[in-house]
Amino acid sequence: xxxxxxxxxxxxxxxxxxxxxxxxxxxxxxxxxxxxxxxxxxxxxxxxxxxxxxxxxxxxxxxxxxxxxxxxxxxxxxxxxxxxxxxxxxxxxxxxxxxxxxxxxxxxxxxxxxxxxxxxxxxxxxxxxxxxxxxxxxxxxxxxxxxxxxxxxxxxxxxxxxxxxxxxxxxxxxxxxxxxxxxxxxxxxxxxxxxxxxxxxxxxxxxxxxxxxxxxxxxxxxxxxxxxxxxxxxxxxxxxxxxxxxxxxxxxxxxxxxxxx
Amino acid sequence: xxxxxxxxxxxxxxxxxxxxxxxxxxxxxxxxxxxxxxxxxxxxxxxxxxxxxxxxxxxxxxxxxxxxxxxxxxxxxxxxxxxxxxxxxxxxxxxxxxxxxxxxxxxxxxxxxxxxxxxxxxxxxxxxxxxxxxxxxxxxxxxxxxxxxxxxxxxxxxxxxxxxxxxxxxxxxxxxxxxxxxxxxxxxxxxxxxxxxxxxxxxxxxxxxxxxxxxxxxxxxxxxxxxxxxxxxxxxxxxxxxxxxxxxxxxxxxxxxxxxxxxxxxxx
Lengths: 261, 268
Prior knowledge:
By secondary structure, chain A is α/β, with parallel strands linked by helices. Chain A contains ten helices and ten strands. In chain A, helix 6 runs parallel beside helix 7. Chain A starts with a strand and ends with a helix. In chain B, helix 3 crosses helix 6 and helix 4 packs antiparallel against helix 9. The longest helix of chain B has 39 residues. The interface between A and B is medium-sized, with 23 and 13 residues.
């Protein structure tokens, strides 16, 4: 499999605390890679590094062979045009209608005619099952619809990479399953590379081709779904079998754990 | 155990580092704002004209009633206070000079700036802050859209146009307030008052007021945006930064007013 994204030796800190500890893995082109882990394991931080929002202390992230950690903002913007990101809370601009939200990347980065853009917006919204909602504002929509609109916006420029930060967070199981189905549909229809950060077990088994599991800033597992099911790593088993942690943390313990002492 | 001296110097050091970090952040913001407002348009990155116009309506047009009412009252108050002193020496006609000059040089720009800082500066901080809290700023960045160009530049341009305009409005309405009081209570002949005002005012008075207004518009925009971008987390932070933005911008407006007034005193 061709490598689309290669992460090597990634280390990052929040202040003095080490959040990610020497992470290396790669993401294959055209596959869905799920980054998995409990709350506070650093998976959202890792995602923010992949989309260039945070810079690591050391390490490199190569997207199509280019190291994005060494890029200036201007160059990074060129890479970002080939990425779509769905944020946890959808992050649609509340002051704009859905149509304007989806059209925004096109307006900023292309010289398309307004009428062409309208057609493309309608196509993107139809793709995610929101046709007819062009003139609605994000505040008028339900959580699941906002996520769908967020996906439509992420797809506006037909990106190579689509990143999802907790796509099913805050949704009921039925709506969450709908989002999973949408991801599968997009995967079938477009040759895109998907990176999904989540902790929802059902959605992992529905959408993932490849799984990377983080625990306290380290990779404890990477492999296919079958390998995940067969893993005998204690932490992986606890996660899969939904076993609670034994002790309750005190704040000192919590910091010690994320600091890795 | 660190000694008292170590604690003391540590405290000063930490505060200084924090202050330097804030200053660094603010100067990056100022630099970016001016770059995206005045340099990048010549490199083909257009300004968002429609948004700028809607900001002009929000910060300028919608402030007209409150600015007008306050300017009118301040004009009347100034005339009353001046008359209280001047009638002792029988020089009531100089009320016109006092009202005209103090309004155009000083009170109209600073009052307008304080009203706009309270109305729009806080709105800038709240808008950008809640966008930051809802990851909307991150979303803009990942779409390859610079948040300063997208959000701050239209606000800066709107204020650069509208704050001087509101100041001129406050000049006129304030002078009208003084005029109304003078021709009724003080029984000065309208024509005399009018002539006296015209003689008292020189172009410089109005121009210095407008220069101040331009500087204040930069202060209000930058402070509002700065506090908006500094929001980390939820609604409580948005509220805290909104309040801080108003306090800081009013403080800085007065500091810079002192600076400009000193400059104009010595160099005009």
